[in-house]
Design brief:
28% of the residues lie in helices and 22% in strands. It is built from 5 helices and 5 strands. The chain has a 5-stranded antiparallel beta sheet with strand order 1-2-3-5-4. It is an alpha+beta fold. It starts with 25 loop residues before the first strand and ends with a helix.
Length: 170
């Protein structure tokens, strides 16, 4: 995994550990509290998952990881005060594989709709907003939020897909 982008993106060091150590790899990357963070986060997730040696772990679906990460980062930018960076945390999970992705922001209140949607949740197809948390609940194997020392972390987990299933041609 290459280092996170240079200072313009508010980068932090690259992986904290890796498959060679027998522990899952994790990355902590600081992103700007602007809409520019969304494509940066997508590119970082793509690079992180593409850079892992084939066969090292069962990796999640990269397109799903990018989509859900973009939703979390966009929500953090839109729904929190612009004080300080947003932190993206990517952790590869030990066997059977997969990953957990977290977005840390300064707002302590959690998104209740992430884990407790209303009983009559209907999505208006004409609205521009309101589908992000629904997508996260539908496409992840687990999701939630937790308080942190400086706000909250909203996270989701994706299961690993064996290499032979990831590389099939359509």
């Amino acid at each position: 995994m290459p280092e996170a982008p240079g200072p313009a993106a508010g980068s932090a060091p690259g992986p904290a550990a890796g498959p060679a150590t027998g522990r899952p790899a994790s990355w902590h990357i600081r992103l700007p509290h602007t809409t520019a963070a969304v494509p940066i986060a997508r590119a970082l997730i793509r690079a992180a998952l593409n850079d892992i040696e084939p066969g090292m772990a069962a990796l999640p679906d990269g397109d799903t990881a990018e989509l859900l990460t973009a939703e979390l980062v966009a929500n953090a930018v839109e729904h929190t005060a612009g004080q300080g960076p947003i932190e993206l945390v990517v952790e590869l999970l030990a066997a059977p594989g997969g990953c957990q992705i977290e977005v840390h922001d300064p707002e302590p209140a959690g998104p209740a709709a992430l884990v407790r949607p209303g009983p009559e949740v209907e999505v208006d197809p004409w609205q521009e907003h309101g589908r992000g948390l629904l997508l996260i609940r539908a496409l992840s194997s687990d999701c939630g939020h937790r308080p942190t020392a400086h706000g909250k972390a909203v996270w989701f987990t994706l299961p690993g897909i064996p290499a032979q299933r990831r590389h099939r041609e359509p």
